[in-house]
Known about the structure:
Elements (H helix, E strand, L loop, with lengths): L5 E5 L4 E8 L3 H9 L1 H7 L6 E7 L6 E7 L5 E12 L3 E9 L12 E10 L2 E9 L3 H9 L2 H22 L5
Antiparallel strand pairs: 1-2, 2-8, 3-4, 4-5, 5-6, 6-7, 7-8
Helix pairs in contact: 1-2
Amino acid sequence: MKSKIIFTQDPKSASIYVMKVFPVEVPTIWDYFTTSENLDQWWAPKPWKCETLKLDFQPDGFWRYMMKGGENEKHFCAAQFHDITKNRSFDWTDFFTDEDGNKLKEFPEANWLFGFTGVQDGTKLTVNIHFSTPEEMNQIIEMGFEEGFKKGLDHLEDLVRTRKKFGNHSL
């Protein structure tokens, strides 16, 4: 049975809080958020696919990626990393880009803080996402962010459960 996802919007503070518990230890979940081969497996909600163009996981580094839809639609995005505490937390500023990595001004950027905490059942992931205004938050929500992010997190849970069941070997 999948663990519950808590997804709370706070229009007053223009923020979103997400929490989910995964049935594996922190280093496993950390790797799924910090390595391109793992991010590409789950970051985009099905039927979309994520493809990392470049990942430089260090303070001031960037993750540039493309999400590709079933009918060959493409959306380009980037995240700039800030503070990183291995197996504990990291934050980034996330934004949409054009194919060359230039920020698209018609879409809002958001500041994300990811937290990873060991708990009895595995790893509690917390994500705090902050926007400049409630309108910017609503723009992303109206684009289907809540449903898409929840699908991605549930797919990640499926991946880690399979990995736990069959070990670290490729299937």
